[in-house]
Amino acid sequence: MDATPWVLAAVAGAGAIGVARLATALSRRHRRRQALEVPASVDDPTRGRPRPWIIMNPSKHEDPQAFKDRINRKAKELGIDHVHWRETTREDPGTGQAVRALAEGATVVIAAGGDGTVRAVAAGMAGSGVRMGIIPVGTGNVLAGNLSIPDDPGQALAIALDRNHRAVDLAWVRVEDATQESDQPAEGGLRLAAHAALHPEDTLQDEAAPASSNEPHADEYACLVVAGMGYDGETMADTDPELKKRIGWIAYVWAGLGAMGAPRMKARLTLRSPAAAAPDPLGIGDQISGSIVHEAGDVADEVTAIEARSVMFANAGEMKMLILAPDANLSDGLIDVIAVDAQAGLLGWADVTWKMLGQLIGLRPVNLPVATGTVAFRQAKGASVTSKEAQVCQVDGDAIGVAHTMHIRMQAGALDIAVPAERTWMELLPG
Questions:
Q1: DSSP letter at 65?
Q2: Cα–Cα distance between 140 and 216 in angstroms, integer?
């Protein structure tokens, strides 16, 4: 019996399923973007009239004053007579300004900048319960994309002042055994310094803060999108800032091509209170699994030895033109750990690329024993990775030095961020 028709039918069926999944993903993104065209109101009976503070990164604008004038005009259209402005500096990219805005009575603090500015402001806002808004300005704006916040400053301002919002997790990142220190200030230290300046009578035990406390240590970096070490760290460190200004996020792709020669790391990965692993009887799935090293009741830690080009810790799942972590949820209190490995040069990287692209249409990676590229995931409440050789580390696109160890802990629901209302197709139909 000729099996050719059955093979062709199976291939056609798989292709149809792939097209359907891609169409669903694209239509959902289109619906989210289209929902932003519905005008927003600043009326929110639960909060009264907003008192907005905007923390702006002036380096993102050729004419910062023109940007301020544009936003001020839009604010008046929305019924807001006065906007308080603060600018970031190289020494403090937004954390201290956010702490002071809260102390001055802000009911909404808006970060106007790229992911670095948003991260810095979020560090100052964490745990405050005060609404945070985002006006995306710059190259990446990955968090804004995950939250469906538009690039148009006027639309983004309307959303920041409107009533729709959601809780968003914040990760705190710390590196150990550094061989090269970072010139990037740690947001934990900036937050503690700002609080100390406002309340000098209080004694803040920076280094001796209890492990259960959400207050960061002085050497902890805030993370809203993704942190990691290895290949992704090399990529971020090698990205030319001037090239980013000229060609946008493609500059990261260019730097990534140059970082493909980064050596594989041999590392020990610890997952703290990981989510249950999915069954994988054939051993070809995409789950990171290890041995239980500590168990107390329902809480268990796992440790595993890995070889990888990159180990990443994602809070947000969607990157530019890429689904990095398909299970990531900004509000689940979990970090998505991703181990990426590539062997056999370009062949391995091609294998990894196809696995990543497959996630756009809902296809999970299959890591066969003969695969030249592997992508594996696991969710946990915290994680640590220690590499035998020191690796370049990054947080939300900013290099934070070269170190052997990176620790991640989650502050669940740390932020209350304004987001657009996600409407259905029926609500968006004309008439």
A1: H
A2: 26
Distance CA(169)–CA(379), nearest Å, equals 14
The amino acid at 171: A
CB distance 325 to 338 below 8 Å: yes
CA–CA separation, 285 vs 355, rounded Å? 12
Q: Which two tokens stand for residue 338?
A: 């991703």
User: Cβ-count burial of 295 within 10 angstroms (0-12 exposed, 13-18 middle, 19+ buried)?
Assistant: exposed
Dihedral sign (CA 412, 413, 414, 417): positive
**83: alpha, beta or left? (left if phi > 0; alpha if psi -120 to 50):** beta
Exposure letters 76-93 (e unless 16+ CB within 10 A, then b): eebebeebebbebeeebb
Global pTM exceeds 0.90: no
Give the mean pLDDT of 412-418: 97
Please state, in angstroms and rounded to a whole number, the distance separating the CA atoms of residues 372 and 354.
12
Distance CA 261, CA 36 (A): 42
Return the structure tokens found at 99: 């702490």
AA letter at 185: P
User: Residue 69: left if φ>0, alpha if ψ -120 to 50, beta else—which one?
Assistant: alpha
CB 287 within 8 A of CB 278: yes
CA distance 199 to 214: 19
Say how far apart CA 258 and CA 252 lie, in whole Å: 10
Residues 6+ apart with CB under 8 A from 222: 95, 119, 120, 122, 123, 126, 170, 171, 172, 173, 187, 188, 216, 395
Instruction: Name the band, by pLDDT with cuts 50, 70 and 90, for residue 402.
Output: very high
| Contact present, 160 and 418 (Cβ < 8 Å) | yes
Structure-block tokens of residue 322: 């890429």
Cβ contact 46:385 at 8 Å: no
Tell me the C-alpha to C-alpha distance, in Å, between residue 314 and each of 70, 335, 416. 34, 6, 19
Distances (CA, A) of 64 to 57, 75, 241, 246: 9, 17, 19, 18
Phi, psi of 214 (to 5 degrees): -80, -15
Residue 94's identity, in one-letter code, is G
- The closest of 298, 333, 328 to 410, measured between CA atoms, is 333
Counts for the chain of helices (H) and strands (E), in that order: 12, 16
Closest by alpha carbon to 133, among 87, 100, 164, 104? 164
Q: Which residue has the tokens 């041999």?
A: 266
pLDDT per residue as tens digits for the range 49-75: 688 999 999 998 889 999 999 999 999
Strand partners, 168: 415
